[in-house]
Design a protein that fits this description.
The structure is a homodimer. By secondary structure, chain A is of the alpha+beta class. Chain A has helices at 7-14, 36-48, 63-74, 88-97, 110-114, 118-135, 138-141, 148-161, 223-242, 249-262, and strands at residues 2-4, 22-26, 29-34, 55-58, 78-82, 101-105, 166-167, 172-175, 196-205, 208-217, 274-276, 283-287, 302-305, 308-311, 315-318, 321-325, 330-332, 341-342. In chain A, strand 2 and strand 3 form a beta hairpin. Chains A and B meet through helix 2, helix 4 and helix 8 of A and helix 2, helix 4 and helix 8 of B.
């Protein structure tokens, strides 16, 4: 008996996309527990063949009560749950409502999601090409005198027109001093001469997330800013060059970090080199110093490669592409020019 | 010694907005633990006076290690944490890294967020008026032959132009049969004669979320569809009419539900009547049958009022406004015409 409560993992296993629900797997068969908001959606998705064949139970009161009923019906006493997704409070409510021995496990479903199947790879190829298409239009939108917010609104509209369901995260347009913040929010600052501009955006297509960063400069960047960009570009290439199945994820980070260290930006590279992509925009594997040393790239993994360097008061740069690990090497899903776009 | 890990609660208590971090409160002083991605943001926010005066510790390795160091420095042995926000896995990692007695509490910070202060109310008034302004433009965007996705893109651009940082959730444009799904995603379906169209959207302004639903009809709706709208409109008014400080939150739901029951749509009203608004788009209080019977509206609460009725195969309707409970009654923050917009 296993209870899956992460909505992303439920979507992966069943095809049902909602913000709530529980998926109960047992020897007696699989069962999706939903509340009234989603019953029609699930019935229609089932009829269209968009969902795995599972029985659907609609809660009349609380999810705990429905869970007690479903589990009670099977007679199971050992109940495995997702320790990474169940809060201490929720577990307490389940334990109060459902008799049995609850056993938390980490990574019940995530290892399955790590390696993309042929359907998922086909979606990623379409999504990567569509995102590169949006990036190809940046020169229309990034202009001196426009605000970060205006540029971000254009990118978001571009994502929508390119067929993405929604942005995969809040679009980042970070100009001048703001470019030194890896996670800046677009504001009212207007792009002005000498600025470096970080343009980091992504989209969700058929449920899957892609993510890309390009750099622009307003007029001629100063020597220091130009140096940051050159170092990041070289670091990204170094990371891409070492990637193939069998290489340690930490070694990909190491390749980028070695370049930035050598160029004097080691301390300015304040995040990891990349993260996995899938139904979530951040998932396994991480390409990081902190990755488990025995974790290796495998064919079918999809991840970002995005070194950056951030110098407070001067500016920052990041370049990001999405990569599929293949049997023979890698495939860059977001292929396109990575030059500093001078506007 | 108290460890706050919900990023929303950290934002509420400190003014720091990020997707990671821990806030440690102790007799020795308060401390924000961040990773390298956020150190510059926090330093600059502090310098601008946008953040509470707290010391900032930057993690060199993991948050667990940093937490052990901070807590070790205080000599505390009893560590209170947010049971609603800490997963079973995370607690295990903390317990492995930090000696002490971890005690999970629910609602450590949320009760403070329930009653809005004068700064928050001022933001809500601006945000509600801006959202009503976007709603006033719906007639420009909702037209026969356009796709749900196109209308949603226009609404999103309208939110951006109205000054919102981002949509508060995925904009819903649900037409014809799709309107029978309370949480539909905009798709390629084109608006056509006789459709009811649910338009549900919201925005984030200065960190706070507002949320509104209006209804349109393409041409003359059928009698059944028109009846659904009329019943929902009457139910929303009934809920608004009973709202004031001291009334049970479940009674507000009851007022709307009684109308829909009487009109024959009791079973078609598959969700609660409303939810609180704040830094999150869904927060306390819930206006629901399932609300604690002793929970009452209090001056300073802000919540949505959004009854709906959904008839599979025919269509659905929802009307939603945001309401501030005051000392003397209520103030509708999103005031504007709620008529069925005929296009």
């Amino acid at each position: 008996m296993c209870v899956v409560s992460s909505s992303t993992n439920i979507a992966y296993l069943t095809g049902f996309h909602g913000s709530a629900g529980l998926f109960v797997q047992s020897a007696e068969g699989d069962c999706l527990v939903l509340d009234g908001r989603y019953a029609t959606v699930a019935t229609e998705a089932g009829a269209r063949g968009d969902m795995a064949s599972v029985s659907v139970v609609t809660t009349e009161t609380t999810y705990e009560a429905a869970l007690a009923e479903v589990i009670g019906g099977t007679g199971a006493t050992r109940i495995v749950f997702e320790a990474d997704h169940v809060t201490v409070s929720l577990l307490k409510r389940w334990q109060a409502a459902v008799p049995g021995d609850f056993q938390g496990h980490t990574s019940l479903v995530e290892p399955l999601r790590l390696i993309k199947d042929s359907h998922e790879i086909a979606v990623f190829r379409r999504a990567g090409a569509a995102l590169a298409g949006v990036a190809a239009r940046l020169a229309e939108w990034v202009r001196e005198g426009r605000s970060e917010r205006q540029v971000a609104a254009d990118i978001n509209l571009g994502l929508s027109r390119a067929g993405f369901t929604r942005p995969a995260f809040d679009t980042i347009v970070a100009s001048g001093p703001n470019s030194a913040h890896p996670h800046a929010h677009p504001g009212d600052r207007r792009l002005s001469g000498g600025d470096l501009v970080v343009l980091d955006f992504g989209g969700v297509l058929d449920g899957y997330c892609v993510d890309l960063t390009r750099m622009a400069a307003v007029g001629r960047p100063g020597d220091e800013a130009a140096g940051i960009f050159r170092a990041v570009r070289k670091a990204q290439q170094a990371a891409l060059d070492v990637m193939c199945a069998g290489v340690a994820t930490s070694a990909v980070d190491g390749a980028a970090r070695q370049v930035l260290d050598a160029e004097g930006f080691g301390a300015a590279f304040v995040h990891g080199t990349g993260h996995g992509l899938g139904l979530e925009v951040h998932e396994a594997p991480r390409l990081s110093r902190l990755s488990p040393p025995d974790e290796r790239l495998r064919a079918g993994m999809v991840c970002t490669v995005e070194p950056g360097a951030y110098v407070p008061g001067v500016g920052g740069a990041r370049l990001e592409d999405d990569v599929l690990v293949t049997d023979t090497g890698i495939e860059v899903l977001t292929a396109g020019p990575r030059d500093l776009l001078t506007v």
